[in-house]
Amino acid sequence: MTDLSVLGIGASPRKRGNSDMLLRHILKGVRSRGVSCEDVQLRDYQFSACTGCEKCRNTTKCTGLQDGMQLLYPKLAGARGLVLVSPTHNYNMTVWMKAFIDRLYCLYMFTDDRPRRYTSSMAGQGRKMVLGAVGEQPTYEEAIGFTLDAMRLPFEALGYETLAQIPVLGIFDKGRIAAEVEILERAEAAGAQLAKAVSCTPGEFP
Ligand SMILES: Cc1cc2nc3c(=O)[nH]c(=O)nc-3n(C[C@H](O)[C@H](O)[C@H](O)COP(=O)(O)O)c2cc1C
Q1: How far lies 101's CA from each of 48, 95, 97, 150, 187, in Å?
Q2: How far is the CA of 123 from the centre of ligand 1 (A)?
């Protein structure tokens, strides 16, 4: 196992906004269990959307685009635990998170028949994750919409198990989540749960 046990990924364009704070509290919970972690903000990395060039076909490496994603692939591979937080933009995750997820297409191996069947190079490694989403509107449908499902489904397909999902509704002003003590406590508890799960998972890890 590498030193980095949990990787936190934030997908808001807004520095020190609500998603940043939610991520920070989840990672505080991870650290409270003595588990190491790192957080990255996708807005700090320059990378393109997947172009579907297929150069990665069954190599599990993206060689078609030499950009900031090349810094993120090893961080993702080396962490058994993952935290993803995105604000809701138009019922869904932000374009930064969507582009990031699409660039993980290279981690699949596909068969040659149609429709192609696939396996993930990350499957069976005891990978676990916690998800968070923040929206302004008061109802789940409008505030979160597809955000959590849209992050959860691709990562489950890659081989991650979802331990907790934290939807935060009714928050707009920058940093307003700081007043939501109960939510932040839940976030820290989810981080602690993730830390425990990644420490207890037996077996080899790349
Ligand atoms: C382009 C854009 C689209 C948005 N779409 C939604 C939405 O569909 N539903 C919602 O509840 N809030 C929406 N919001 C509001 C944000 O989710 C909300 O302000 C959130 O607190 C921002 O989190 P942040 O501080 O981490 O950036 C949108 C904001 C932007 C900038």
Answers
A1: 11, 10, 6, 10, 23
A2: 32
Residue 134 near ligand 1, beta carbon < 6 Å = yes
Q: Which domains does the chain have, with CATH numbers?
A: 6-45+75-105+121-200 (3.40.50.360)
- Ligand 1 within 6 A of 141 CB? no
Residue whose CB lies within 8 A of the most ligand 1 atoms, among 21, 85, 136, 148, for a mutation test = 136
Q: Could you tell me the pTM of the whole model?
A: 0.97
CB of 171 within 6 A of ligand 1: the answer is yes
Between CA 21 and CA 85 the distance in angstroms is 10
Digitized pLDDT (tens) for each residue of the chain, 206 residues in all: 455 699 999 999 999 999 999 999 999 999 999 999 999 999 999 999 999 999 998 799 999 999 999 999 999 999 999 999 999 999 999 999 999 999 999 999 999 999 999 999 999 999 999 999 999 999 999 999 999 999 999 999 999 999 999 999 999 999 999 999 999 999 999 999 999 999 986 666 77
